[in-house]
Amino acid sequence: MAILWVAVLGVAQTPAPKPASTKPKVNSLQKNLKSVKSKKAAATKELRKVRGQMRVVKGTLSEVNTRIENIEDELVVTARQLGATRTEQQKLAQELTVLAAQLQSRTEEARHRLKVMRIRGQASFLSAMTGSRNMGELASRRYLFERVAKKDRELFEEVKELRERVAKRKE
């Protein structure tokens, strides 16, 4: 046991570390702590700044996405309208072709009718009226001439109307 006492006394007599040697370490650690804290504060400040910028970018991105969606919707509507317009254009072109053919046909009929009227003139009407043998025949001839005149007016009106419709469709 004596040896144990000697060992315990030897440990108890070991001198404590010198305070002068720990003071520079403490100062160095405090400086490091201060440096780390200032770096942390700067990083925290930068983080706040970046987060604010991220919010702005997210807002701008959201606005841009909304505008893109609106433009895409408008594009779909415009494409539909274009398709409808093209279909209508084709329909009008077909109608114009039909109207032009009708106009040409009716114009030829009107020209023929005018030619016949010019060749026969008023003489045929007068000769038909004066050549009647009785009042019944006169009334019948008059009726026929009135029907022919009515049909001629209808033909000329139809030609006029067809010309107007063709001109309107061409616009």
What does this structure look like?
The protein contains three helices and no strands. It has helices at 2-12, 19-130, 135-170. The model is unreliable at 1-12 (pLDDT under 50).
What structural class is derived from the secondary structure elements?
A: mainly alpha
Helix content: over 70%
Label the overall shape: rod-shaped
Note poorly predicted spans: 1-12
Task: Count every helix, treating DSSP H or I runs of 4 or more residues as helices.
Answer: 3
Summarize the structure.
The chain has 3 helices and no strands.
SSE order and pairing:
Elements: H1 2-12, H2 19-130, H3 135-170
Helix pairs in contact: 2-3
List keywords for this structure.
3 helices; mainly alpha; 171 residues; rod-shaped
